[in-house]
Amino acid sequence: MAYLTVDIGGSPGINCRGFCEYCYFKNVRGTQPLGCRYCLPFKKGCDYCTRGVKEEYSGFKELKIIADEVLANLQTQRGDIERITISGGGDPSCYPRFTELIELLGSMEAPLHIGYTSGKGWDDPTVADLLIENGLSEISFTVFASDPALRRRYMHDPTPDASLKIVERLCETSDVYAAAVIIPGINDGDVLENTCEWLDASGAKGLILMRFANAAEQGLILGNGPVIQNQQVQSVESFRDIIARLSEKFDMKITGTPLWDPDIGSPFALVSEPDLIKKLPRVNRKATVISGTVAAPYIQKILSNCGSSVPVVPVTKEIACLITTDDLRTLNISTLENLVILPGRAFVFDPEAQKIVSGDGVEREVIRGPDMLTADAETSMGMTRDQVLALEMEGFSELIQTINRYGK
Q1: Which of 66, 92, 126, 400 falls 20 to 30 Å from 332 in CA-CA distance?
Q2: pLDDT higher than threshold 80 for residue 246
Q3: How far apart are CA 286 and CA 399, in angstroms?
């Protein structure tokens, strides 16, 4: 089974008819390299943690370049193409030769998947027919709200009615996964209820709700907070309660990030599976596991049930994969074990991290843990509970084996 990804290039805010009011990439300026797992040991900063994390590209690729890349990728694939995914830093709906692109990919007679679009670039509802005729099977579509006026105001969509009609039409034939960043007082409450009712009636497959982030501890690691001045932000717990309530009320699948997926019980569905936890390796050495405030309690419970006596240490950052070097400077290093395990995807330069955690004169070793211990809502939306549990079993097995191999 072969999957083909078509990268159209582009940059947020530039190739999408301008930033949405709430956009994570809004206000980003030239930031210093963050450091990451891909950096060379002697140099902080690589393409991923300088340009890639900001999705900073020179612009949309020419159609000929995309066609040449598709042809080159096809020559390396074995078997039939099962799915073609369109992605990029810019919004596919704003690609200047979108019709030709879709007709080109549609000629390959494989299901099309658009990984993300705001729909702001589509002013004519007949675009939906173009997509359907060329084999669109799945699309992730940011709606924000079913109220056109709110969509115009906060997404800067010049033709919100057309965009919403496209959603309705695509729901008839394709798997539409809607998305909305929830801003308290703007598109929550009755507005959110109305949006869910509209999507559910239209036949949307699911809705992913994303909690609005406005500060560094919530994930704004590019020096760009606050995104909206003086805007209230929900607690993780209250946001989870909204997801749970809406999930019970509507037929379509509703998930939230950072929490949660009510159908699967993720992230960290393993917590409610003691029989599976018993199948994990036992922890027989000591190490400090660093995580974010959301994941730390779950990781602690699972590792404790596997025999660990060392507390999982959270930094002030909520999301573990967005931990940066500055977060490590807030730790009480005297409480750390000789082995410190960082999240695999944390934006930290490992030699710098080792210097920070050894700042009290005790030489400590820093290594990376697994890239993923669980599936967030954006990942679990298309997964079964068994698939999520298998992912978690694999991640925690790797983490425990790392502790037992390198710990004291």
Answers
A1: 400
A2: yes
A3: 12
Tokens 């710098």, located at residue? 352
Question: What is the residue type of 120?
Answer: K
Closest by Cα among 96, 154, 84 to 122: 96
- 15-37: pLDDT as tens digits: 999 999 999 888 887 668 899 99
Confirm if 204 and 176 have CB atoms less than 8 A apart.
yes
Contacts of 282 (CB under 8 A, 6+ apart): 306, 307, 400
Q: Would you call 342 helix, strand, or coil by DSSP? A: strand
Other Cβ atoms closer than 10 A to 162: 18
Mean pLDDT of 297-314: 97
Q: What is the pLDDT of residue 76?
A: 81
Q: How far apart are CA 177 and CA 191, in angstroms?
A: 18
Q: E-strand spans in 169-262?
A: 175-182, 206-211, 253-257
* DSSP letter for each residue of 140-163: EEE-S-S-HHHHHHHH--S-HHHH
Q: 41: Cβ–Cβ under 8 A, 6 or more apart, which residues?
A: 350, 351
Long-range contacts of 350-353 (CB under 8 A, 24+ apart): 350/35, 350/37, 350/39, 350/41, 351/41, 351/44, 352/35, 352/44, 352/325, 353/325, 353/328
Element (H or E) spanning 405, and its range? Answer: helix 385-406
What separation in angstroms does the CA of 275 have from each of 298, 300, 377, 389?
A: 16, 17, 24, 12
Roughly how many angstroms between the first and final C-alpha of the chain, as a whole number? 43
CATH architecture type of domain 2-257: Alpha-Beta Barrel (3.20)
In angstroms and rounded to an integer, the radius of gyration of the C-alpha atoms of the chain is 22
Q: Phi and psi of 125, rounded to 5°? A: -60, -20
CA distance 333 to 401: 24
Domain ranges of the chain: 2-257, 269-406
pLDDT digits (tens, 9 = 90+) for 364-395: 999 999 999 999 888 888 889 999 999 999 99
Q: Which residues contact 155 (CB under 8 A, 6 or more apart)?
A: 20, 21, 118, 120, 142, 144
- For the chain, the residue count is 408
Q: What is the pTM of this model?
A: 0.91
**Using an 8 Å Cβ cutoff, are 326 and 349 in contact?**
no
Residue 1 has pLDDT above 70, yes or no: no
